[in-house]
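Archive transcription. Copying these from loose printouts into the bound notebook so they stop getting lost. Printout 1 of 2:
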Amino acid sequence: MVGFVVFVALVAVGFLVWRNLAARGGGVRDAAGRLIGAPTAIAGVVATALVGLVLVILLGTSIRSVPVGHALVVFNTLTRSFHVAGQGLTFVTPIVSDTHLYDMRRLEYTMSGQTGEGRKENIDDSLWSPTQEGLQVGIDITVWHHVDPLRIAAIHQRIGPDYEEKIIRPAVRSVIRLVISEYAVMDVYSSKRAMIQDEINRKIKALVEKDGFVIDEVVLRDVRFTPEFTKAIEAKQVAQQGAEQMKYTLEKEQKEAERKVIEAQGRANAIEVINKALAQNPNYIKYLYVDKLSDKISVIVSDQNTIMDLKGILGKR
């Protein structure tokens, strides 16, 4: 509002100067006030052009367009005061205003070892940290954050527009090293990864939100290990697969042995039953023999010690 008032005042002053110059005109007059020389119209044109140029310059420096999702922090060097202008057209006091545009939308800050992914594209920007055992792991991470609109002027005054490098990045690196050092390497590698991510979220928020930065989410993109540890993990997995295969083979052989024992036990029980039957009835063995013969064979039992082939006898006759 102050900028608009000053702008209107300058326009009014410029207009009055132009009117005064135009009223005076130009040339030389005698004692009676009569015009002796030709009027100097050129002087009026030049004055008008100068006033118009000044007005254009003042207009250009007084009106600012703030894009959608941004805020303009304005510092008046004369009054030493700050104010924030929202998106759209806004008036600022010319000459004495120092301004800076801030993006108020959600921003992404990624630290990654993959080329072209992170904020620092040409270097390995992973966060390497020691685990509980002292083994180094590399963390690729993304932080989604935005600035508190109510504290943007204070952030500009105390920290400045490069707050990501001054606040966000150091806070993330510090928390990552602190949290990872409390866990074993296999926890980071597998089962407790979600728990670790939640703890990192909580600690980063507690560390930076007091300065006016809102952490929307912290995401662990990837966990990487040194080449030596990766080879050790692969060797361990191969050994575990071999052990699982051996366990399967032993279990299979054990079950086969148990099956054979059960089968042998069944046969022994059957033989025992048969022996008991033979002891009670000796002719039972002959019955079994005859029962196994083909249906086409005619037999006759003459006594307990003789089995005759009736078909064979009849055939000879």
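Printout 2 of 2:
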Amino acid sequence: MNTPAGDYSVGMAPPTPTKLLIIGGAEDRVGKARILKRFVKLAGGRRAKIVVIPTASSFQDEVVAAYTEVFTRHGAAQIAVVNPPDRLAADEAALAAVIDDASGIFMSGGNQLKLAQVFAGTAAGDAISRAHARGAVVSGTSAGASIMSEFMISLGDEGVTPRQRSTQLTHGLGLLSGVIVDQHFAQRQRYGRLMSIVASSPNLIGIGIDEDTAIEVTDRESFEVVGRGAAYVLDCRRAITDAPEARSGAPLLVSGAVVHSLPAGSTFDLKKLVLTAFVEQHPDSGITVTTAASSRP
């Protein structure tokens, strides 16, 4: 008997959607912690099995303690730490087994180049990819956000103006292909470095994420913005640029690029590169509507 597409009534469960929760850094951990609370919920709530990866940080003990506290506060009971010191350790089967058992994986901020050097192309890195494919939510903040894409910005100048050869790319985990993710976007003026990459490689789409803001990516096809700030999508597929001729360090010509500024409540199609829905989450406040009678002196 053939089951019609989309009909799972004959003992067949629908496929588990894949989820990435990519955070732009400096997310709230001591208040309502909405983004981290969302991560715990996506990981299974009280049934969550969370793995914290603090490898990118210079303060690993403090990072583990802080995230253990906030995840526990929001209901997670099982939290493990995976922190290989180098690539050889990241190839150990025991570490990969811990990740294989996780329902949620969280990578901290810090040095994204160190994170990529340790995890990309190792057994532990492969286990993260397997976990994502089977439906575990994979999340990261700052450095942990940038490593999600196939290629990531490991070094780069900050500023508004895109400049030739102002950035360095490193291979990431490849959980989200065809994009470059940049973090602390508005706060550290990283528009220029992300635009310089996508102008020079117009087959790539740039995604910049503000602090205390995240994109929740479903099935690598669409994302919703959550948090206090905005996410930005940079599309240079039809732009004109002088990248092939510009000298090193020169301001780049970029004409015809499309930039989407997407606050919380925005849902964006990553395949068609269009806004698909928007629910206003920042209504005007502090405005009093008065009648003519009540406004008389």
